[in-house]
Design a protein that fits this description.
The complex is a heterodimer of chains A (about 400) and B (about 270). Chain A is an alpha/beta fold. Chain A has 15 helices and 14 strands. Chain A is globular, with a radius of gyration of 19 Å. In chain B, about 45% of the residues lie in helices and about 15% in strands. Chain B has twelve helices and eight strands. The chains are: A alpha/beta (about 400), B alpha/beta (about 270).
């Protein structure tokens, strides 16, 4: 059984986590840890959070019965509608929290890495609202495939810095954000977008995202009079999954499923499924599962979804995998694209390609469970940002 | 040959000559094995006291664009951990200055910490710097390296609080590495000589170890200023820039000339 009190004082979830960063950042992380525990113990901090989540983000997000998604006998599929949040994804839950922490710490500048652009947009958004300077680091490949979000960030007053090193995707954007933080650690707050990085980031991001699971649990209980049989969420770094899992991790009868991106397949170097195809390693400040070669070099990854195109995963997911509390499966590009189209046609909802991975697995699971089950899926974001990518894959004229 | 564990002798010559030691960083296999060996020979001939041999890693969080690009060149040429260790062993056989490895935890972890410690010691190296492992995580690889007689110099940054700096100095071996300014390695930003001087003065009573200063040192003037206050001056990115784009004898000539310019700038103390 998983220990729910983690991380421990050193930032470990079992053997995963820790603080593996250059010395220049150690004191900044220690300050962040102190500021986090002070803020979390301060009712005024949560009161301000609650108002922002309600009036600005639009919480609580609804749950929705996706009735037409699966034909034949099946368990009801319920979406937790994080796509209805301001900026269109769960990412804003976390950026609002971290920006309030930054302001408490007297930092005036926010930096962020972004893959799909959702976290960058969410950081730019709260930066605009709080009057803070925002610099976003984004791989050149992602700048190209997520042009709409790049423009949105600029519209919101943020500067977007294309990163041309390495694979030119989320991994390299994260490297660059860490380097920038090391150079400007005194006036800059690094808003990490997922439950990754050195302690206390995996912990504090989870705490800001757990609102998803807390709300969903109460909503499902109220509407169905029982808990879901299964909770399904996509996992790149893993913040939307950790957020919804946190609401149910105590309910030992509720099965938790993390859905990774298999890309072109689990065997290939062409995958992004760190928990399914990776091994234990250290990346971006913590020990977790990493897609790496025999020499400890981090591998190039591939997923049609920029937000899942990442060779690492949050250390708490590694812990949940090893402890058996959650199971991690993988869905490939083709299956995710099929679910993307299917959800649009059958439900009138265009999901983010990331979330489409979770939906693809949930369709299968709902049939397997039969009418006695109840499958809750975290619809972590909306797919407007992906329309151009999907249109290009379909050979349609791009909008 | 300097046996591993006898790190102290590294600084003996500099001490006798009443000057700071010169430590030079190169990446193993950048751009190829033969060039790295020729460069190490040239650095030794130019009076470099200790070679930091970078074992290339593709995601070097503590490094700026120059060293990251050098690592990519080395990896692109197929350089593996075993190749880097073999380069060190061959350089030492050829009479090179003592060699200290510099890499990140993940390649060591994957290779096997025990195996790395054993083979690194057998190669004649004197220690290893692993910049993404702070004091609190030293247990991840420290004990096997120390058991093999390898020193582990630890880093102190301008953001390190004084009490912590003293603890780091205490846990360090070989020397203490003072990072001269905020940020990652690279010649684009100047070292903070004032901070380095103040830190050296503050740490001096806390440790018997030599105090080395690095990050941002790129000109003879920097070497002169830092060499006036520290026990060692570390140069990396600017040296790599000096021979980037060349190979073999030409790379060695450029690296040697550049190192000599820094070496000659180190002031003799009164």
């Amino acid at each position: 059984m998983a220990n729910l009190q983690l991380p421990d004082a050193r930032g470990y979830f079992g053997r995963f986590g820790g603080v593996f960063v250059p010395e220049v950042l150690v004191e900044a992380l220690a300050q962040l840890e102190r500021a986090t525990s002070e803020a979390f113990a301060d009712p005024a901090f949560w009161a301000e959070m609650e108002i922002l989540l309600r009036d600005y983000v639009g919480r609580p997000s609804p749950i929705y019965h996706a009735e037409r998604l699966v034909d034949g006998p099946h368990a009801p599929i319920v979406f937790k509608r994080e796509d209805t949040n301001h900026t269109g994804a769960h990412k804003i839950n976390n950026t609002v929290g971290q920006a309030l922490l930054a302001r408490r710490m007297g930092k005036r500048r926010l930096i962020a890495e972004t893959g799909a652009g959702q976290h960058g947009v969410a950081t730019a958004t709260i930066g605009a609202k709080l009057g803070m300077q925002v610099d976003v680091y984004m791989g050149e490949v992602d700048v190209e495939r997520q042009a709409l979000n790049v423009y949105l960030m600029k519209l919101l007053g943020a500067s977007v810095h294309p990163v041309g090193s390495g694979t030119r995707t989320l991994k390299d954007a994260t490297n660059e954000a860490f380097r920038e933080w090391a150079a400007r650690v005194e006036d800059t707050f690094y808003v990490i977008g997922s439950v990754v990085g050195a302690h206390p980031y995996p912990y504090l991001v989870r705490e800001f995202q757990k609102v998803i699971g807390v709300e969903a649990r109460a909503q499902v209980l109220e509407r169905y009079g029982r808990l879901p049989s299964d909770v399904v969420a996509c996992v790149g770094g893993g913040s939307n999954a950790m957020g919804i899992f946190r609401g149910f991790v105590d309910d030992s009868d509720v099965r938790l499923w993390g859905v990774e991106a298999a890309g072109h397949g689990l065997q290939a170097a062409d995958t992004a499924a760190s928990l399914n195809a990776g091994s234990v390693g250290v990346l971006h400040g913590s020990r977790s599962y990493v897609l790496q070669d025999d020499e400890g070099q981090v591998l190039d990854t591939h997923s049609v979804s920029a937000g899942l195109d990442y060779p690492g995963v949050g250390p708490e997911h590694a812990y949940l995998k090893d402890s058996g509390r959650a199971q991690y499966v993988a869905i490939d590009d083709a299956e995710a694209l099929a679910a993307f189209h299917h959800t649009a046609r059958r439900e009138g909802i265009v999901p983010a390609l990331e979330s489409a991975h979770a939906i693809a697995f949930a369709q299968r699971l709902a049939t397997e469970r039969g009418p006695g089950g109840l499958v809750l899926v975290n619809l972590s974001g909306r797919g407007d940002k992906d329309v151009r990518t999907v249109a290009a894959l379909d050979g349609e004229n791009q909008p | 040959m300097i046996a591993s564990g006898e790190f102290d002798t590294v600084f003996a010559r500099a001490r006798t000559e009443r000057r700071a030691a010169l430590i030079a960083y190169v990446v193993a296999g950048d751009p190829d094995r033969a060039t790295t060996l020729a460069v190490i020979d040239a650095l030794t001939a130019a009076g470099v006291d200790l070679i930091e041999l970078g074992i290339p890693y593709g995601d070097p969080l503590a490094d700026g664009p120059t060293i990251a690009a050098a690592a990519q060149r080395a990896l692109g040429g197929g350089t593996k951990m075993a190749d880097a260790i073999a380069i060190a062993a061959e350089a030492r056989e050829r009479g090179a200055a003592p060699i200290l490895y510099f890499t990140y935890l993940n390649p060591i972890d994957r290779y096997g910490v025990e195996r790395f410690a054993r083979e690194a010691a057998a190669s004649g190296a004197v220690g290893a710097i692993v910049p993404d492992v702070p004091l609190e995580e030293l247990a991840a690889f420290g004990p096997p390296l120390r058991a093999a007689g390898l020193a582990i110099p630890l880093l102190i940054a301008p953001t390190t609080p004084p009490e912590r700096a003293a603890r780091i100095a205490e846990a360090s071996s070989g020397f203490v590495y003072l990072v001269s300014r905020l940020g990652v390695t690279g010649a684009r930003r100047e070292p903070d000589v004032g901070w380095a001087a103040a830190s050296v003065a503050r740490l001096r009573p806390a440790t018997a170890l030599p105090l080395a200063v690095g990050f941002g040192i790129s000109t003879p003037a920097h070497a002169a200023a830092v060499g006036a206050v520290a026990d060692a001056v570390i140069v990396g990115s600017a040296l790599i820039d000096a021979y980037a784009g060349s190979r073999g004898a030409e790379a060695a000539r450029r690296a040697g000339a550049y190192a000599r310019s820094l070496r000659d700038a180190l002031p003799v103390r009164g």
